[in-house]
Amino acid sequence: MDYVMICGVALIVAALTLFSGFGLGTILMPVFALFFPIEIAVAATAIVHLANNVFKVFLVGRHADLPVVARFAIPAALAAVGGALLLERVSAAEPVARYTLGPGTHVVTPVKLVVAALVVAFAVLELAPRFERLAFNKKFIPVGGVLSGFFGGLSGHQGALRTAFLTRAGLAKEALIGTMVVSAVAVDVSRLAVYGSTFLTGSLGAVARSGNSVWGLVAAGSVAAFAGSFIGARLVKNVTMRAIQVLVGAMLLLLGIALGTGLV
Fold first, then answer.
1. Structural domain count, the chain
2. Domain range spanning residue 216?
3. Vertex 242: Cα angle to 176 and 251 (nearest 5)
């Protein structure tokens, strides 16, 4: 069931969001959280996200506007380190609540509350019609990089802010897509470096000893995302951006509530 869910989500979402700049990480992370601790879910999602973005760099990266990449991606990569370090600190905190519902005991931890708050906040933004038209003056591109990178490191949610800021950079469609992809890779590399040197190695060892294969799911999810990107290049013109935003927002809202209440 875990392989079916993760591969299915990676395939479908990657197909729908190839040109949107966001969606794969925001939806895939909560699905990983159904099977692993939240900090592992964020890190595993980051690996799939990075692999898919590297693949997309080969498809569209040559169109990236390098000056804009420098103004956005460098602050984003630096801020991602801060977000990832904060995730490591919060994930080590003791649970704030435990309760029994039905046959299982559910735990509410600080990291779940933090990520749940972020997920719900992004869900509200995705569902708000005004956010569809939200954009920022290009002089704020470095600020957008800091915000996108920080939330990318903390919870994996970086794409919506990245898209909102870069759409006002005065770039052609091909350059915009290439710039977003290269910037996403910079953030993923930065946060994965922190994840790998802090909690990820130890947590993966614990998961492996329990009989679950994180790396198998990561590899399968990555392959499914590659396939989705191929399909998306042919189908995305038939899907409206608003439809994608509503889908992402609705799923985030439900899963954010589930995370915050300890149900997952």
1. 1
2. 2-260
3. 105
Using DSSP, state whether 19 is helix, strand or coil. coil
* Strand, coil or helix: 108: strand
Mean pLDDT by 10 residues, the chain (264 residues): 85 74 74 78 81 84 91 95 86 81 75 80 76 72 92 78 78 83 89 75 58 76 86 67 69 77 75
Partner residues linked to 99 by β-bridges: 106
Q: Give the bridge partners for 106, in sequence order.
A: 99
- How much is the pLDDT for 215? 79
Q: How far apart are CA 65 and CA 70, in angstroms?
A: 9
Structural tokens at position 133: 């038209």
DSSP-derived pairing of the beta strands 104-108 and 97-101: antiparallel
C-alpha 84/C-alpha 62 separation (Å) is 29
19 φ, ψ to 5°?
A: -105, 0
Tokens 């299915």 belong to residue: 8
Look at the alpha carbons of 233, 238, 239, 240 in this order and tell me if their dihedral is positive or negative: positive
Longest CA pairwise span in the chain (Å): 56
Q: Which of helix, strand or coil describes residue 22?
A: coil
* CA 259 to chain CA centroid, nearest Å: 16
Given a contact cutoff of 8 angstroms between Cβ atoms, the answer to whether 245 and 127 are in contact is: yes
> Can you give the three-state secondary structure of 146-179, one letter per residue?
HHHHHHHHHHCCCHHHHHHHHCCCCCCHHHHHHH
Q: Are 252 and 30 in contact (CB under 8 A)?
A: yes
This prediction has a pTM of 0.73
